[in-house]
């Protein structure tokens, strides 16, 4: 079973991330499948995912951090390009750890599309859209 994780860089709820990942691990185990967890190794939610993977040795972790060179060449698009790459690798599901965007609106997403009120932070929203477009089921977990 392959799980893509995305989430806000300001995500603080470690226990929520760990609890959700544990549920997926149990599901994979019940299906007699190896669990591979894919994430972008960014701050916030990704760091909680990484920490859980490090404590769960039977899980295969794939992390795709954005390198300083990618940031220099691509600027703010670097994270979106990384997310597109992770989605292109495929997944059985995607957990998105969402925090509402706090930028003054209206906001535009990839391709200049105006984002709806109450949307998640831009990287998370973009990754969810890409995953859905690739036919990957997305489970949204909103911060409390």
TrEMBL record:
It comes from the Bacteria. This is YspA cpYpsA-related SLOG domain-containing protein. Residues 1-55 form the YspA cpYpsA-related SLOG domain. InterPro entries: YAcAr.
